[in-house]
Structure formats: C-alpha cells, structure tokens
Amino acid sequence: MGYCGTDGQAITTQATRDGGIDGFIQQDALGLQNIYIQVKRYAKSNSVGSRTIQSFSGALQERSAGNSNSGVFITTSSYTQDALISAKRLHIKAIDGEQLAKLIIKYKVGIKTINQFPIYEINKDDF
To answer: What are the residue boundaries of the Restriction endonuclease type IV Mrr domain, all occurrences included (predicted)?
Structure first.
C-alpha cells in the first residue's frame, strides 16, 4: 500500500502482553510516523463494540506519547454503529472484513494467483 518505513517492513508485537497494539508500520521512509494496528479475528456474528475501540485508543495514546501517530483497527467481522462513531471521534481508521478482503485482493497481500483465464476478442481485420 506504499508504506515503506526505514526497512520496508511491518513490525508485529509479541502475542501476549502487547499493551493493546498488535503491530505497527512506519508511514514514511525515515520512520518519523508510526501507524499502530489492532487486529481482531472474529466470527462474522461477533461485531467489534465501542469499548474495544476505546481500549485501543487508550493503548494508542500510551504508545504514541504525544507524537502524531495513527491507529488502524482491523476486524474480520464488522463494527457496531457505536464502535464506528467512537472510531471516527478518536481518529481511528476502522476496517471491517469486507473492506479487508477488498484490500487483500487489490494489493495482493497474503494471496497468490492459482489460475488465470484469457479473454478473447475477434479480430475484425482478419475477416
């Protein structure tokens, strides 16, 4: 998606005791601004609520310590309306399962092409 950081990588935090942050990417090549990420792999029927967004906001504020850093919350499910309102108010980008699937396909992250089908058109100059 164009995020490069100093070494062009994303950093994943430890699995437990991560302080509410699952990882981060650096927005620019100099590593001046971090984008902190929280990911919830939920079943389709289990929506993310506003308390979860607010908890991430607290972790983001603690981690960023006054710097101009951003937060992205990604879920495989969806958000409640209150969660979306909280995310907007707290300047957190909320990405749901449908948006995530579109981004995965658009940027070809974690997927590979297993089959391609050609599309043919009649060349009218030959007839």
So the answer is: 9-104
Answer whether residue 115 is part of any domain: no
> How many structural domains does the chain have?
1
Please give the average per-residue pLDDT across 42-56, as a whole number: 95
**pLDDT recorded at residue 25:** 83
| Residue found under tokens 């749901």 | 96
Whether the pLDDT of residue 2 is over 70: the answer is no
Note whether residue 32 is domain-resident. yes
Decide if 117 is inside a domain.
Answer: no
For residue 92, the enclosing domain spans: 10-109
Residue 27: phi and psi, rounded to 5, are -75, -30
Provide the whole-model pTM: 0.78
